[in-house]
Design a protein that fits this description.
By secondary structure, the protein is mainly alpha-helical. Helix content is 69%, strand content 0%. It starts with 7 loop residues before the first helix and ends in a 9-residue tail after the last helix.
Amino acid sequence: MTTSPLSPFISSKFRFWSFMAMALLVVVHEYNLNVRYLQPWTLPGEPLTLTGFTEYFLANGILRFRIPMLFIISGFLFAMNDYRPYKQRVKKRFRTLIIPYLIWSALGILFTWLLELWPYGRELVANSHVVQVDDSRMLIHQYHWYEIILRWIFRPIPYQLWFIRVLFFYNLAYPLILWCLNHKVARWIFFTVAILLWLGTFGFTIVEGEGLLFFTLGVWIRKKGFNIEQPGRFLNPLGWGIAFVTLAAIKTLLAFTGEPWMGKAVYPVLTLMHKVTVFSGLVACWYGFDRLVSWSMGKRWFVWLSAFSFIIYVGHAPMVAYCIDPALELFRSFQYDRMLAFITLPVAILVFCIGAGWLLRTLVPKVYSVLTGGRGFSATI
Protein backbone atom coordinates (compact mmCIF):
# COMPACT_ATOMS: atom_id res chain seq x y z
CA MET A 1 0.00 0.00 0.00
CA THR A 2 1.31 3.43 -0.97
CA THR A 3 2.23 6.14 1.48
CA SER A 4 3.80 8.56 -1.03
CA PRO A 5 2.75 12.21 -0.89
CA LEU A 6 0.86 13.93 -3.68
CA SER A 7 2.89 15.41 -6.50
CA PRO A 8 2.45 19.19 -6.95
CA PHE A 9 0.59 18.61 -10.22
CA ILE A 10 -1.87 16.09 -8.75
CA SER A 11 -2.46 18.43 -5.82
CA SER A 12 -3.29 21.27 -8.21
CA LYS A 13 -5.39 18.86 -10.30
CA PHE A 14 -7.52 18.00 -7.26
CA ARG A 15 -8.00 21.70 -6.59
CA PHE A 16 -8.87 22.42 -10.24
CA TRP A 17 -11.53 19.72 -10.47
CA SER A 18 -12.96 20.57 -7.06
CA PHE A 19 -13.52 24.14 -8.22
CA MET A 20 -14.86 23.13 -11.64
CA ALA A 21 -17.25 20.64 -10.04
CA MET A 22 -18.72 23.37 -7.83
CA ALA A 23 -18.95 25.93 -10.64
CA LEU A 24 -20.59 23.45 -13.01
CA LEU A 25 -22.99 22.39 -10.27
CA VAL A 26 -24.56 25.84 -10.53
CA VAL A 27 -25.14 25.21 -14.25
CA VAL A 28 -26.81 21.87 -13.54
CA HIS A 29 -29.09 23.37 -10.89
CA GLU A 30 -30.12 26.20 -13.25
CA TYR A 31 -31.70 23.72 -15.69
CA ASN A 32 -34.97 25.45 -16.69
CA LEU A 33 -36.95 23.02 -18.85
CA ASN A 34 -40.47 21.92 -17.89
CA VAL A 35 -39.39 19.02 -15.68
CA ARG A 36 -36.63 20.44 -13.49
CA TYR A 37 -35.92 17.62 -11.04
CA LEU A 38 -33.37 15.46 -12.84
CA GLN A 39 -32.87 11.74 -12.40
CA PRO A 40 -30.91 9.52 -14.83
CA TRP A 41 -34.21 8.44 -16.41
CA THR A 42 -35.95 11.84 -16.46
CA LEU A 43 -37.96 12.63 -19.59
CA PRO A 44 -38.08 16.37 -20.45
CA GLY A 45 -41.82 16.34 -21.15
CA GLU A 46 -41.58 18.74 -24.09
CA PRO A 47 -40.68 18.69 -27.82
CA LEU A 48 -37.03 18.50 -28.89
CA THR A 49 -35.51 21.92 -29.56
CA LEU A 50 -31.96 23.25 -29.74
CA THR A 51 -32.33 24.79 -26.28
CA GLY A 52 -33.89 21.65 -24.83
CA PHE A 53 -31.20 19.41 -26.32
CA THR A 54 -28.37 21.66 -25.11
CA GLU A 55 -29.67 21.97 -21.54
CA TYR A 56 -30.43 18.26 -21.12
CA PHE A 57 -27.19 17.22 -22.85
CA LEU A 58 -25.20 19.32 -20.36
CA ALA A 59 -27.24 19.13 -17.15
CA ASN A 60 -28.23 15.46 -17.34
CA GLY A 61 -25.35 14.16 -19.42
CA ILE A 62 -21.95 15.77 -19.86
CA LEU A 63 -21.77 17.46 -16.44
CA ARG A 64 -22.87 14.48 -14.36
CA PHE A 65 -19.34 13.17 -13.73
CA ARG A 66 -18.69 15.96 -11.20
CA ILE A 67 -20.09 14.48 -7.97
CA PRO A 68 -18.54 11.01 -8.49
CA MET A 69 -15.19 12.73 -9.09
CA LEU A 70 -15.56 14.69 -5.84
CA PHE A 71 -16.32 11.47 -3.95
CA ILE A 72 -13.24 9.80 -5.46
CA ILE A 73 -11.06 12.77 -4.48
CA SER A 74 -12.56 12.76 -0.97
CA GLY A 75 -11.94 9.04 -0.49
CA PHE A 76 -8.40 9.35 -1.84
CA LEU A 77 -7.51 12.25 0.45
CA PHE A 78 -9.08 10.62 3.52
CA ALA A 79 -7.07 7.44 2.91
CA MET A 80 -3.92 9.50 2.40
CA ASN A 81 -4.12 10.67 6.03
CA ASP A 82 -4.09 7.24 7.67
CA TYR A 83 -1.01 8.22 9.63
CA ARG A 84 -3.29 10.40 11.78
CA PRO A 85 -5.50 8.86 14.50
CA TYR A 86 -8.95 7.96 13.21
CA LYS A 87 -10.79 9.68 16.09
CA GLN A 88 -8.83 12.86 15.49
CA ARG A 89 -9.76 12.85 11.81
CA VAL A 90 -13.46 12.21 12.52
CA LYS A 91 -13.50 15.04 15.03
CA LYS A 92 -11.97 17.35 12.44
CA ARG A 93 -14.46 16.21 9.80
CA PHE A 94 -17.31 17.00 12.17
CA ARG A 95 -16.00 20.56 12.40
CA THR A 96 -15.33 20.91 8.68
CA LEU A 97 -18.45 19.10 7.41
CA ILE A 98 -21.28 18.84 9.93
CA ILE A 99 -20.96 22.30 11.50
CA PRO A 100 -21.14 24.06 8.08
CA TYR A 101 -23.91 21.63 7.07
CA LEU A 102 -26.10 22.61 10.03
CA ILE A 103 -25.34 26.32 9.68
CA TRP A 104 -26.11 26.49 5.96
CA SER A 105 -29.19 24.31 6.38
CA ALA A 106 -30.46 26.77 9.01
CA LEU A 107 -29.60 29.73 6.75
CA GLY A 108 -31.57 28.10 3.94
CA ILE A 109 -34.64 27.86 6.18
CA LEU A 110 -34.23 31.46 7.36
CA PHE A 111 -33.69 32.80 3.83
CA THR A 112 -36.77 30.99 2.54
CA TRP A 113 -38.89 32.05 5.52
CA LEU A 114 -37.94 35.71 4.99
CA LEU A 115 -38.56 35.45 1.25
CA GLU A 116 -42.06 34.15 1.94
CA LEU A 117 -42.90 37.36 3.84
CA TRP A 118 -42.98 39.10 0.45
CA PRO A 119 -45.93 38.20 -1.86
CA TYR A 120 -43.72 37.81 -4.93
CA GLY A 121 -41.25 35.82 -2.84
CA ARG A 122 -44.00 33.41 -1.75
CA GLU A 123 -44.80 32.85 -5.40
CA LEU A 124 -41.15 32.13 -6.22
CA VAL A 125 -40.84 29.61 -3.39
CA ALA A 126 -44.11 27.88 -4.27
CA ASN A 127 -43.29 27.68 -7.97
CA SER A 128 -39.84 26.24 -7.28
CA HIS A 129 -41.34 23.28 -5.31
CA VAL A 130 -38.14 23.25 -3.21
CA VAL A 131 -39.96 23.11 0.14
CA GLN A 132 -43.17 21.43 -1.02
CA VAL A 133 -44.57 18.85 1.41
CA ASP A 134 -47.78 17.91 -0.42
CA ASP A 135 -50.24 19.43 -2.90
CA SER A 136 -51.55 21.89 -0.31
CA ARG A 137 -48.35 22.92 1.48
CA MET A 138 -45.75 24.66 -0.66
CA LEU A 139 -44.22 27.08 1.86
CA ILE A 140 -42.09 26.96 5.02
CA HIS A 141 -44.78 29.00 6.78
CA GLN A 142 -47.09 25.99 6.37
CA TYR A 143 -44.72 23.58 8.12
CA HIS A 144 -45.26 22.10 11.56
CA TRP A 145 -42.42 22.82 14.00
CA TYR A 146 -41.10 19.26 13.85
CA GLU A 147 -41.04 19.36 10.05
CA ILE A 148 -38.73 22.36 10.23
CA ILE A 149 -36.38 20.42 12.51
CA LEU A 150 -36.43 17.43 10.16
CA ARG A 151 -35.71 19.76 7.27
CA TRP A 152 -32.82 21.32 9.13
CA ILE A 153 -31.16 18.03 10.03
CA PHE A 154 -32.06 15.55 7.30
CA ARG A 155 -33.42 17.32 4.21
CA PRO A 156 -31.84 20.77 3.90
CA ILE A 157 -33.50 23.39 1.75
CA PRO A 158 -30.01 23.93 0.28
CA TYR A 159 -30.48 20.53 -1.35
CA GLN A 160 -26.86 20.21 -2.47
CA LEU A 161 -25.83 19.65 1.17
CA TRP A 162 -26.73 15.95 0.87
CA PHE A 163 -23.15 15.45 -0.38
CA ILE A 164 -21.68 16.73 2.91
CA ARG A 165 -24.03 14.59 5.00
CA VAL A 166 -23.30 11.28 3.31
CA LEU A 167 -19.58 12.09 3.01
CA PHE A 168 -19.38 12.44 6.78
CA PHE A 169 -21.06 9.06 7.27
CA TYR A 170 -18.60 7.47 4.82
CA ASN A 171 -15.77 9.00 6.86
CA LEU A 172 -17.32 7.41 9.97
CA ALA A 173 -17.56 4.07 8.17
CA TYR A 174 -13.96 4.27 6.92
CA PRO A 175 -12.57 1.50 9.20
CA LEU A 176 -15.26 -0.90 7.92
CA ILE A 177 -14.63 0.14 4.30
CA LEU A 178 -10.90 -0.35 4.77
CA TRP A 179 -11.43 -3.77 6.35
CA CYS A 180 -13.54 -4.86 3.37
CA LEU A 181 -10.88 -3.66 0.93
CA ASN A 182 -8.18 -5.60 2.79
CA HIS A 183 -10.03 -8.93 2.62
CA LYS A 184 -10.56 -10.50 -0.79
CA VAL A 185 -14.00 -12.05 -0.30
CA ALA A 186 -15.34 -9.03 1.59
CA ARG A 187 -13.90 -6.75 -1.10
CA TRP A 188 -15.72 -8.56 -3.89
CA ILE A 189 -18.98 -8.58 -1.94
CA PHE A 190 -18.62 -4.92 -1.01
CA PHE A 191 -17.91 -3.71 -4.54
CA THR A 192 -20.69 -5.91 -5.96
CA VAL A 193 -23.21 -4.37 -3.56
CA ALA A 194 -21.85 -0.86 -4.16
CA ILE A 195 -22.06 -1.23 -7.94
CA LEU A 196 -25.62 -2.55 -7.74
CA LEU A 197 -26.60 0.38 -5.49
CA TRP A 198 -25.03 2.75 -8.01
CA LEU A 199 -26.74 1.16 -10.99
CA GLY A 200 -30.05 1.27 -9.14
CA THR A 201 -29.55 4.92 -8.12
CA PHE A 202 -30.32 3.82 -4.58
CA GLY A 203 -30.12 6.30 -1.75
CA PHE A 204 -31.43 7.50 1.57
CA THR A 205 -30.26 9.74 4.42
CA ILE A 206 -26.86 8.20 5.19
CA VAL A 207 -26.12 5.91 2.23
CA GLU A 208 -26.58 6.38 -1.48
CA GLY A 209 -25.11 4.37 -4.30
CA GLU A 210 -23.08 6.92 -6.20
CA GLY A 211 -21.22 8.25 -3.18
CA LEU A 212 -20.51 4.86 -1.58
CA LEU A 213 -19.04 3.38 -4.75
CA PHE A 214 -16.85 6.31 -5.69
CA PHE A 215 -15.68 7.22 -2.18
CA THR A 216 -14.58 3.59 -1.76
CA LEU A 217 -12.98 3.65 -5.21
CA GLY A 218 -10.97 6.69 -4.13
CA VAL A 219 -9.77 4.83 -1.03
CA TRP A 220 -8.85 1.78 -3.12
CA ILE A 221 -6.96 3.90 -5.69
CA ARG A 222 -4.86 5.44 -2.93
CA LYS A 223 -4.21 2.20 -1.07
CA LYS A 224 -3.26 0.23 -4.18
CA GLY A 225 -1.04 2.96 -5.60
CA PHE A 226 -3.08 3.11 -8.80
CA ASN A 227 -1.46 5.44 -11.34
CA ILE A 228 -3.53 8.62 -11.44
CA GLU A 229 -0.82 10.59 -13.27
CA GLN A 230 -0.82 8.65 -16.55
CA PRO A 231 -3.62 6.59 -18.13
CA GLY A 232 -3.15 2.86 -18.45
CA ARG A 233 -3.76 0.84 -21.58
CA PHE A 234 -7.53 0.70 -21.16
CA LEU A 235 -7.94 4.29 -19.94
CA ASN A 236 -7.04 6.23 -23.07
CA PRO A 237 -8.88 9.54 -22.63
CA LEU A 238 -9.54 10.00 -26.36
CA GLY A 239 -11.56 6.81 -26.69
CA TRP A 240 -13.40 7.40 -23.43
CA GLY A 241 -14.00 11.03 -24.45
CA ILE A 242 -15.63 9.97 -27.72
CA ALA A 243 -17.84 7.52 -25.82
CA PHE A 244 -18.62 10.21 -23.25
CA VAL A 245 -19.92 12.77 -25.73
CA THR A 246 -21.61 10.22 -28.01
CA LEU A 247 -23.50 8.48 -25.20
CA ALA A 248 -24.62 11.79 -23.68
CA ALA A 249 -25.95 12.90 -27.08
CA ILE A 250 -27.79 9.62 -27.77
CA LYS A 251 -29.22 9.60 -24.27
CA THR A 252 -30.49 13.15 -24.76
CA LEU A 253 -32.18 12.25 -28.05
CA LEU A 254 -33.79 9.18 -26.47
CA ALA A 255 -35.05 11.24 -23.54
CA PHE A 256 -36.91 13.53 -25.92
CA THR A 257 -38.00 11.04 -28.59
CA GLY A 258 -37.53 7.49 -27.26
CA GLU A 259 -40.67 6.84 -25.24
CA PRO A 260 -43.17 6.61 -28.16
CA TRP A 261 -41.32 3.66 -29.70
CA MET A 262 -39.48 2.21 -26.68
CA GLY A 263 -42.29 2.49 -24.16
CA LYS A 264 -41.32 1.84 -20.54
CA ALA A 265 -38.02 0.31 -21.70
CA VAL A 266 -36.73 3.84 -22.20
CA TYR A 267 -36.27 4.26 -18.43
CA PRO A 268 -33.75 1.42 -17.84
CA VAL A 269 -32.03 2.28 -21.14
CA LEU A 270 -31.58 5.91 -20.09
CA THR A 271 -30.36 4.85 -16.65
CA LEU A 272 -27.74 2.45 -18.01
CA MET A 273 -26.55 4.98 -20.59
CA HIS A 274 -26.35 7.60 -17.85
CA LYS A 275 -24.09 5.39 -15.72
CA VAL A 276 -21.74 4.59 -18.60
CA THR A 277 -21.67 8.28 -19.54
CA VAL A 278 -20.66 9.21 -15.97
CA PHE A 279 -17.83 6.65 -15.89
CA SER A 280 -16.65 7.67 -19.36
CA GLY A 281 -16.64 11.30 -18.27
CA LEU A 282 -14.57 10.51 -15.19
CA VAL A 283 -11.83 8.84 -17.23
CA ALA A 284 -11.91 11.32 -20.12
CA CYS A 285 -11.87 14.44 -17.96
CA TRP A 286 -9.32 13.26 -15.39
CA TYR A 287 -6.73 12.09 -17.93
CA GLY A 288 -7.66 14.24 -20.93
CA PHE A 289 -7.50 17.82 -19.64
CA ASP A 290 -4.02 18.01 -18.13
CA ARG A 291 -3.03 20.92 -20.37
CA LEU A 292 -6.09 22.88 -19.29
CA VAL A 293 -5.30 22.10 -15.64
CA SER A 294 -1.69 23.25 -16.03
CA TRP A 295 -2.71 26.44 -17.83
CA SER A 296 -5.50 27.29 -15.37
CA MET A 297 -3.53 26.58 -12.20
CA GLY A 298 -0.67 28.65 -13.61
CA LYS A 299 -2.89 31.74 -13.57
CA ARG A 300 -3.04 33.67 -10.31
CA TRP A 301 -6.60 34.81 -10.99
CA PHE A 302 -7.82 31.23 -11.41
CA VAL A 303 -6.04 30.03 -8.26
CA TRP A 304 -7.65 32.95 -6.42
CA LEU A 305 -11.10 31.98 -7.73
CA SER A 306 -10.58 28.31 -6.86
CA ALA A 307 -10.31 29.21 -3.18
CA PHE A 308 -14.05 29.96 -3.22
CA SER A 309 -15.14 26.44 -4.25
CA PHE A 310 -16.86 25.68 -0.97
CA ILE A 311 -18.71 28.99 -0.67
CA ILE A 312 -20.03 28.48 -4.21
CA TYR A 313 -21.19 25.01 -3.24
CA VAL A 314 -23.02 25.97 -0.06
CA GLY A 315 -24.26 29.38 -1.20
CA HIS A 316 -25.76 28.87 -4.65
CA ALA A 317 -28.91 26.95 -3.69
CA PRO A 318 -31.77 27.37 -3.04
CA MET A 319 -31.12 30.86 -4.42
CA VAL A 320 -30.58 29.52 -7.93
CA ALA A 321 -33.90 27.63 -7.85
CA TYR A 322 -35.80 30.73 -6.73
CA CYS A 323 -34.17 32.83 -9.48
CA ILE A 324 -34.97 30.61 -12.47
CA ASP A 325 -38.45 32.02 -13.10
CA PRO A 326 -37.35 35.68 -12.69
CA ALA A 327 -34.47 35.02 -15.11
CA LEU A 328 -36.90 33.54 -17.65
CA GLU A 329 -39.19 36.50 -17.21
CA LEU A 330 -36.29 38.90 -17.74
CA PHE A 331 -35.53 37.41 -21.15
CA ARG A 332 -39.14 36.65 -22.11
CA SER A 333 -39.16 39.14 -25.01
CA PHE A 334 -35.99 37.70 -26.55
CA GLN A 335 -35.64 34.79 -28.93
CA TYR A 336 -34.04 31.81 -27.17
CA ASP A 337 -35.08 33.25 -23.81
CA ARG A 338 -34.50 29.97 -21.97
CA MET A 339 -31.01 29.60 -23.41
CA LEU A 340 -30.14 33.17 -22.41
CA ALA A 341 -31.37 32.51 -18.88
CA PHE A 342 -29.45 29.21 -18.80
CA ILE A 343 -26.23 31.03 -19.71
CA THR A 344 -26.53 34.23 -17.69
CA LEU A 345 -28.04 33.07 -14.38
CA PRO A 346 -25.16 30.73 -13.44
CA VAL A 347 -22.68 33.50 -14.18
CA ALA A 348 -24.62 35.91 -11.98
CA ILE A 349 -24.85 33.36 -9.15
CA LEU A 350 -21.13 32.60 -9.36
CA VAL A 351 -20.24 36.29 -9.27
CA PHE A 352 -22.53 36.80 -6.28
CA CYS A 353 -21.15 33.82 -4.32
CA ILE A 354 -17.52 34.70 -5.01
CA GLY A 355 -18.13 38.36 -4.21
CA ALA A 356 -19.95 37.54 -0.98
CA GLY A 357 -17.24 35.05 -0.04
CA TRP A 358 -14.50 37.59 -0.68
CA LEU A 359 -16.26 40.21 1.47
CA LEU A 360 -16.80 37.76 4.33
CA ARG A 361 -13.24 36.50 4.16
CA THR A 362 -11.91 40.07 4.15
CA LEU A 363 -14.19 41.66 6.75
CA VAL A 364 -14.98 38.78 9.14
CA PRO A 365 -12.44 36.00 8.52
CA LYS A 366 -13.38 34.09 11.69
CA VAL A 367 -17.04 33.95 10.60
CA TYR A 368 -15.97 32.91 7.11
CA SER A 369 -13.81 30.15 8.60
CA VAL A 370 -16.75 28.71 10.54
CA LEU A 371 -19.05 28.93 7.51
CA THR A 372 -16.58 27.11 5.27
CA GLY A 373 -15.05 24.69 7.77
CA GLY A 374 -11.73 26.51 7.54
CA ARG A 375 -11.53 26.33 3.74
CA GLY A 376 -10.64 29.06 1.26
CA PHE A 377 -7.70 30.76 2.95
CA SER A 378 -4.82 29.33 0.96
CA ALA A 379 -3.91 28.09 -2.49
CA THR A 380 -3.41 24.51 -1.36
CA ILE A 381 -5.90 21.68 -0.82
